[in-house]
Amino acid sequence: MFEARELPRNDYLKIKAACRDLVRAVGGVTRAAAITRLDAARISRACSPNDSSFLPIDVIADLEAHAEDPIVTRTLASLSGFTVIPDEATRPAGSPLQHLAAVAKEHADVVSSISNAYADGEFDADEISAAQDEVREAMEALANLNQALAEKARRKSGVVSIDRDRQTA
Predict the structure, then answer these.
(1) d(CA 28, CA 136)
(2) Smallest Cα–Cα separation from 77: which of 147, 31, 5, 132?
(3) Which residues in the chain land under pLDDT 70?
(4) Are the beta carbons of 43 and 35 closer than 8 angstroms?
(5) pTM
(6) 6, 61, 82, 168 - which has most CB atoms within 10 Å?
């Protein structure tokens, strides 16, 4: 099924799993078909680990937009060594101090996750995955803090945010 491909078979299976998660996130195969240009049977085949087809990129974009979660995009980025962090348009409002508190909480969650995982002397795949989720959440909290600081700096220097002007126009 995955012969003569660039990536290891396991990476393609991760993409398939992410596609299944995405389809579940929008409400299942029938709902995914209603959102996209593909019929339910094709979506089902494309998500199957036993079929060599994959969801087309435009279908993934439609489904991720509907789910409001870049499930497949995050997996693809991870396979290339990148982490997806929400941009400023999706960041919650709040003061730098509120964001700093969130950073501290997320950092503590990372420490707790890894410490608890090592408590039994083993660090299994599920524990590693859970720890990575916590690290991603901490990175998002840091990105939110950075954005809040940048916004404060813009206000202090008299620079006006273009995005903010567009939203109020």
Answers:
(1) 26
(2) 132
(3) 1-4, 87-92, 158-169
(4) no
(5) 0.65
(6) 61
DSSP string, 20-35: HHHHHHTTSHHHHHHH
* Neighbouring residues of 5: CB distance < 8 A, sequence distance ≥ 6: 12
Sequence ranges of the domains in the chain: 9-79, 88-168
pLDDT of residue 169: 44
Can you spell out the DSSP letters for 46-95?
HH-TT-S----HHHHHHHHHHHTS-HHHHHHHHHTT------GGGPPP--
Report which secondary-structure segment, H or E, holds 166. helix 162-168
CA distance 162 to 79: 33
Print burial letters for 18-55: b (CB count within 10 Å at least 16), e (below 16).
Answer: bbbbbbebbeebebbbebbebeeebbbbbbeeeeeebb
Of 24, 54, 34, 31, the closest CA to residue 42 belongs to 54
CA 141-144-150 angle, 5° bins: 145
pLDDT at position 1: 57
pLDDT of residue 162: 54
Q: How many residues are given for the chain?
A: 169
